[in-house]
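Aim 2 progress update. The chain analyzed this quarter is reproduced below.
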Amino acid sequence: MKGIILAGGLGTRLRPLTRITNKHLLPIYDQPMIYYPIQTLCKGGIEKIMIVTGGQSSGDFLRLLGNGKDFGLRDMYYTYQEGEGGIADALKLCENFADGDDVCVILGDNIIQDDLGPAIERFAHQGGGARVLLKEVSDPQRYGVAELAANGKIVGIEEKPSNPKSNFAVTGIYLYDSKVFEYCRDLKPSARGELEITDVNNAYIAAGNLHYDFIEGFWTDAGQFESLFHASQLIAEQRRSQKR
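Predicted structure tokens:
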């Protein structure tokens, strides 16, 4: 399995901080934000990682991360997304990198406490398809929300619903087989003018091949001032507990 970190976009919700740098280079407690998804993938046993970036600060990723040796990687791969075409549009750029392999996709502003290893192992035994990670949240209107049937299966995902059918947010961590790139190519832009990852996940649901795990530890995105601050608090507390 290969890892893909989506770290493009303009970070408009974090201006003026992002007027001079990419959102994913901002600090979360004692490290740049981009370190956390890299460490998450490495901890899950993934050794080949591509970063999708964009904007005027893309070269800063190379200066900061180099070839990935600080994370125990033999090499780090990069590609560039022009504009803001959405998560699925960014993912399309990684098809040659994936080269038919399964991929673990993580949004660059997602901070997670859990080890992805068990979810990756379950994905390897499910026989293809997709696997997403869910987290119960108090503000599901901000996210893609999973509707669960009585038998526990996901029957649909709705993006930022005004009346959510559950409190289970689909976090920005996805496991896909190579079919994902076919689904991405078939997408039509949403009302926002973007290719939505929710539509990709719903395509897997329609095919009867989307599974899920729950995140047990903390999870947050860091795309707003409140969640950026909250992410730093979570990491600070984690660091303190590790020293006790």
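The chain has a mean pLDDT of 89. Residues 131 and 175 are 5 Å apart (CA to CA). These observations will guide the mutagenesis experiments scheduled for the next reporting period.
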